[in-house]
Specification:
Elements (H helix, E strand, L loop, with lengths): L1 E7 L3 H13 L5 E4 L42 E4 L7 H5 L1 H17 L7 E3 L4 H8 L3 E2 L3 E4 L1 H16 L4 E3 L4 E7 L2 E6 L4 E9 L6 H10 L4 E2 L2 E11 H11 L4 E4 L6 E8 L3 E7 L2 E7 L10 E11 L7 H16 L3 E4 H5 L6 H6 L9 E2 L8 H17 L9 E9 L3 E2 L12 E3 L10 H18 L1
Parallel strand pairs: 1-2, 1-10, 2-7, 10-22, 18-19
Antiparallel strand pairs: 3-6, 4-6, 5-13, 8-9, 9-10, 11-21, 12-17, 12-20, 13-14, 14-17, 15-16, 18-20
Amino acid sequence: MKYDVIIVGAGPGGIFSAYELMQSDKNLKVGVFELGAPLAERKCPIDGVKIKSCVRCKTCSIMSGFGGAGAFSDGKYNITNDFGGTLYEHIGKKRAIELMEYVDKINCENGGSVTKLYSTANSEFKTKCLRNDLHLMDAQVRHLGTDINYIVLENIYNKMKDNIDFHFHTAVTSIKKVESGYEVSTDKDETFEAEYCIVSAGRVGSKWMESVCSELNLATKSNRVDLGVRVELQADIFKHITDELYESKIVYRTKQYQDLVRTFCMNPKGAVVNENTNGIVTVNGHSYEDPAMQTNNTNFALLVAKHFTEPFKDSNGYGESIARLSNMLGGGVIVQRFGDLVRGRRTNEKRIQESFLTPTLEATPGDLSLVIPKRILDDIVEMIYALDKIAPGTANDDTLLYGVEVKFYNMEVELDENLESTSKGLFVIGDGSGVTHSLSHASASGVHVARRILETI
């Protein structure tokens, strides 16, 4: 079967590419191939009663399916070039911001207008951070919440389903360059051709993307891996920050090692959750706009980025090995009280039960010092004490640390200003490109490529 454009992956990048193509030319034949399920069928078996922890499904419904890993995230779209990727290095800062604002407009038109757009600009809190050697990144933040984010995706899909061919539960096994463009083969022994191919594999497709780059001889360079923990504490501790800014990206340079530690994915009154990446159980966080679904806790990640030099290139393999160690010791995610960590003792069930903080995720009490490298753990402890200066109570004994949180990044693919690879007609977008690391940047990259293809056609 022949298409004008084939899109591999129905995450934010793939969705916004397809949406833009459809909006501009409904006669275009576009096929989207997705490993996971349609949005309505994406169900994690963990119910907290019969099934309390990850059962390692063949395809993780949290990570794959329509909406990608962002479908059940807390739906934060950060409009900024300061973090979330390096899209601006390819297309320019002004263009990148314009595309992110356009994505925000589409989200609002599809149910997101009921949510608030926050801003860190001219914030008194930014001054307070600077006085304590902490650095607040500038951004506008549209917080959809996991619930509204789902509605937005549902509305977008309903507009697309009659105009775009979606192939769900379909793994793309290979992409080959042919005379007419590209031939895509699937695990269902089917082949499809198109003049243009857009690859939007996401972080979950990092290993698969490496094989595609190898087969097509695409130039790549080593990327990084982010390692750390998810912190959970009582919501009142960060209330003065989250009420004003909601999402605060704070960066700190440690005194001991001069490493950069940053907060990531803050979820006021949210819940800590499992996620499955390539069979490895790691931790993440969600939050909701609906007050009925909110908790008494706030959670956020503390991450340290590790870059590697020659001869080592497998940054994802390094992160996976640490996550596997956590899975081996705890059967999944390990949780430890901050007070126990700094005292060098293992957290047990009794100490969790006696705490003033109720965990939102059922994880195995344990000792993170047996899992996370000392340097990274020292960075995290120092960061917690630094945050305690602007949010007193962060370093309380009962503050919970869940490990490990790992953010995998693809080998960065060599792309031009159109996000086109060295194999002409093949575009690589979203987090699978190694260029974007956020919902807003990934979505913007999808729009950018769609417009480039429309110009060419």
